[in-house]
Amino acid sequence: MESQDQLPQSEQQGKGTTFLKTCFNGINALAGLSIWLCWLVLTNNDLTTALPAGVGILSIPYALSQGGWLSLMLLFLVASLCCYTGLLIQRCMEANPVIKSYPDIGEIAFGSKGRAMISAFMYLELYLIAVEFLILDGDSLEKLFPNMGFKIAGLKVGGKRAFVLLTALVILPTTWLKNLGVMAYLSAGGVLATIAVVVCVLWTGVGEGVGFHEGNMFVDVGGLPTAISLFTFCYSGHAVFPTLCNSMKDRSQFSKVLLVCFLVSTISYGFMGIIGYLMYGDILKSQVTLNLPIRKITTSIAIYTTLISPLTKYAVIITPIATAIEEKFSFGKIRVIVSSSGRCL
């Protein structure tokens, strides 16, 4: 059985990513597959309305407000279970050197039909997430700059379509990066963006007079399903774990990478949930940024950071798809053509 998801030869021959770089890619992947963007509506240059799109770190305070303080224990439970399943993936890969990806596991377990089914679901998931990144950024930028447009060959393009195209052009160079070691620098930017948002929310509570006096509910059984679903979606980065493992110089360290990634992510999620719930309590909206006071520099930084963040995550998300397509064409110019055109598409 041949794997269809092997990384380029340069990485397979001991030129893979280091422990630290893989940690950056892993943390960025966990946050990257948990989309957290706001759709903004500007009226008279004021932020008056914000429509939620997606979940993630910004929705953790809302999850806490739905389930109460006891639901915070569920966050740690979900994180532990998801980390354990990630370790199971590594064990499968160590047990059989042929296994390089989810489809390989599916083929060994269920034959060729299992491989086809798992490939279809996994790559469709990653593809739709990548498309959603473009759409969300396009919608958000359209709300910020409603009258912007340009012409291409005499054809006027404006509104959402214009921003989707511009976003795609900005993201495009990052998709040409095949070395996950280089992508790690983008991932580091994504991690910094997440930290910036957390700091902005914290500063709003400390320096903008909001304070930390709310959040008195211990548990709400009726809200626990909502909390659990939000917590679970925040750790849905497993689709790229095999790719990250294959990219490492020392794959035996991948278990430590998983522990670091889940630990850092859980601390970030937990901290954001606690401060957000203490700040706004039961009046929390679906994303904590929707509660932040308007016309404040910290609010603006948080919002624009969420727009930048997907640009740092796109390449990591599409890498498994691009690699699978490229491995279908293993020779010469055909591989180069397919590689370039596939990543552009």
Overall shape: globular
User: What is the helix tally?
Assistant: 12
Strand content: 5-15%
What's the total count of β strands?
A: 4
Mean pLDDT across the residues is 78
The neighbouring-strand order within the major sheet is 1-2
Global structural class: mainly alpha
Report on the biggest sheet: 2 strands, antiparallel
End-to-end distance:
28 Å
Count of discrete structural domains: 1
Q: List low-confidence stretches.
A: 1-13, 32-55
Radius of gyration: 21 Å
- Percentage of helical residues? 55-70%
H/E series, N to C? HHEEHHHEEHHHHHHH
Q: Could you walk me through the main structural features you see in this protein, from its secondary elements to its overall organization?
A:
The chain is mainly α. The chain has one domain (9-344). It is built from twelve helices and four strands, in the order ααββαααββααααααα. It has helices at 9-12, 19-32, 60-67, 71-95, 102-144, 159-175, 180-207, 224-233, 241-247, 254-280, 297-326, 332-344; strands at 37-43, 46-53, 149-152, 155-158. The strands form two sheets. Strands 1-2 form a two-stranded antiparallel ribbon. Strands 3-4 form a two-stranded antiparallel ribbon. A hairpin with a 2-residue loop joins β1 (37-43) and β2 (46-53). The longest helix is centred in the middle third of the chain and has 43 residues, at 102-144. The two termini are 28 Å apart. It is a multi-pass membrane protein.
